[in-house]
Amino acid sequence: MTFLNKGRAMHDTTTSSGLQTTQFLSFTLGGLEYGIDFAKVQELRVLKALERFAASGEIIGGVAVSRGVIIPLVDMRVACGTSPDAPDPMTDVIILKLSSCVMGMVVDGVTGVVTLLPEQVAPLPAAGGEGTRPDYLLGLGQAGGRRLILVDIEKLMSVNRPAASRQVA
Fold first, then answer.
1. 5-27 tens-digit pLDDT
2. Residue 115 to residue 112: CA distance in whole angstroms
3. Strands 121-122, 41-46: parallel, antiparallel or unpaired by DSSP?
4. Alpha carbons within 13 A on the beta-carbon side of 61
């Protein structure tokens, strides 16, 4: 899967039976599967297919050019604490269109689009039993034997947050 264009937001949809569903793009990071709001996804690219420029930091993997637009790349593999080797053919970049910017997010691999009903999303337990969890975690989606950690990508990628609160689950 090298490329995906979206002409319209497809986050909330209604089935023919009137049930409200939500679509999430699923991807893997460090052996776990995550889901983000599909409406925030502009396109998918294979990491090798992007023209990349200087890496500027540990998590910021430099910038890339996508369709003539220069976008920052955030390497989520590093943010999750894994030390990625050279990109393999499964390494993908999710180009996100957020309210504040367009940016790329490097992940181990995109696994598909998952449609969930509200009853398929359960709240996540608080980390460490302290009664709190990061506000960017939406819950745990379950469909067809799969479990997705659902992430509010706008909150996770917010630049106004303290660095200590940007840990990935």
1. 333 333 566 655 667 899 999 99
2. 10
3. unpaired
4. 24
